[in-house]
Amino acid sequence: MPAPAYAAQRPTGAFIAASWAALMVGAVVYLMGLWNAQMQLNEKGYYFTLLMYGLFSAVSLQKSVRDRIEGIPVTGIYYGLCWVSLGLSVALLTVGLWNATLAASEKGFYAMAFLLSLFGAVAVQKNIRDVAQFRSAHPEIDGAAAE
Predict the structure, then answer these.
(1) How far apart are CA 110 and CA 112, in angstroms?
(2) Which stretches make up the YiaAB two helix domain (predicted)?
(3) Average pLDDT along the chain
(4) In a domain, 128, yes or no
(5) In a domain, 4, yes or no
(6) From CA 50, how far away is CA 123, in angstroms rounded?
(7) Which of 68, 64, 92 is nearest to 78 (CA)?
(8) pTM here?
(9) Which of 56, 91, 92, 98 is 20 to 30 Å apart from 2, CA to CA?
């Protein structure tokens, strides 16, 4: 039995703004912390790569989950890899921070900025997809016919 069609509603402007703010604040603050950190360049590269990997895996997982809800085929291996990638990025950040010679407040700063970035990326991607789906279903309401 196919999954029921997903009927997206247009997200509110406030939720769209809050999602972008969460992504931007989390990522910019995390990167500012790295820029100003007193650590070797290879350590900064490690934490930067973890942020990029985490953002990509979170968005990819969100897309896979949404595709499955909408009845779009997603292979089990890809879906599983998305979950493993997200878990791995969080685990690698945890291990890195656990073993880092940083103050506890700095470790918490990086962890919270990282998680805020992941949440923001998922919410932004969801909003973009919801708005696109809403526009295609309701061009007369949202002005998509003019585009």
Answers:
(1) 6
(2) 15-67, 78-130
(3) 89
(4) yes
(5) no
(6) 19
(7) 64
(8) 0.84
(9) 56
